[in-house]
Amino acid sequence: MASHHALAPPTWRLPEGHHADVYDPRCASRQALDRIGDAWSALITGALEERPRRFNELNRLVTGISAKMLAQTLRSLERDGFVTRTVLPTVPPKVTYALTDLGHDLEHLHATVRGWAEGHIEQIETSRLRWALSQAESDTPTP
């Protein structure tokens, strides 16, 4: 007869003697870095920092993201433990997304990165302009 006791949720651990290494493409930490390092994730966690939000509200706040990309990113953030998805028993069902404790930790990093990008955009754009001009000059045939 099968036991009806609740099983502890599974946990994952690195093999004995191994450490996480984002420079190793086989390491799960590389996949985590891919998720936390993309712009959509950084914008979504920022939009969820203050409170839980519904899908359409997130779609309005994160301008430029398609509904498909928003759904994919939310699903990945949920899978990785950064976001929870709650379905309320209403008609029609109301779905909200919220940051987990891990998601709030990540959002602090994302806030720093977003601030850095905004604070350094003039330097970055100046570099891009100089690079484009140098490329145009090197592409110009000499008589």
Tell me about this structure.
The protein is mainly α and 143 residues long. The protein has a single domain (28-133), classed as Arc Repressor Mutant, subunit A, CATH 1.10.10.10. It has helices spanning 28-36, 39-48, 55-61, 67-79, 101-139; strands spanning 53-54, 83-88, 94-99. Strands 1-3-2 form a 3-stranded antiparallel beta sheet. Helix 2 runs antiparallel to helix 5. It is extended and about 80 Å long.
Summarize the structure.
With 143 residues, the protein is mainly alpha-helical. The protein has helices at 28-36, 39-48, 55-61, 67-79, 101-139; strands spanning 53-54, 83-88, 94-99.
Task: Give the helix/strand layout.
Layout: H1 28-36, H2 39-48, E1 53-54, H3 55-61, H4 67-79, E2 83-88, E3 94-99, H5 101-139
Antiparallel strand pairs: 1-3, 2-3
CATH topology: Arc Repressor Mutant, subunit A
Q: What is the total number of structural domains?
A: 1
Named CATH architecture? Orthogonal Bundle
What's the total count of β strands? 3
Can you tell me the overall shape? extended
Taken in chain order, the helices and strands follow as HHEHHEEH
CA radius of gyration: 21 Å
CATH H-tier superfamily: Winged helix-like DNA-binding domain superfamily/Winged helix DNA-binding domain
Strand line-up in the sheet with most strands: 1-3-2
Q: Largest sheet, if any?
A: 3 strands, antiparallel
Please tally the helical runs, counting DSSP H or I stretches of 4 or more residues.
Answer: 5
Which spans of ≥5 residues are poorly predicted at pLDDT below 50? Answer: none
Assign a percent range to the helix content. Answer: 40-55%
CATH C-level: Mainly Alpha
Question: Which strand-content bin applies to the residues?
Answer: 5-15%
User: Structural class given helices, strands, pairing?
Assistant: mainly alpha
The averaged pLDDT comes out at 90
In angstroms, what separates the terminal alpha carbons? 90 Å
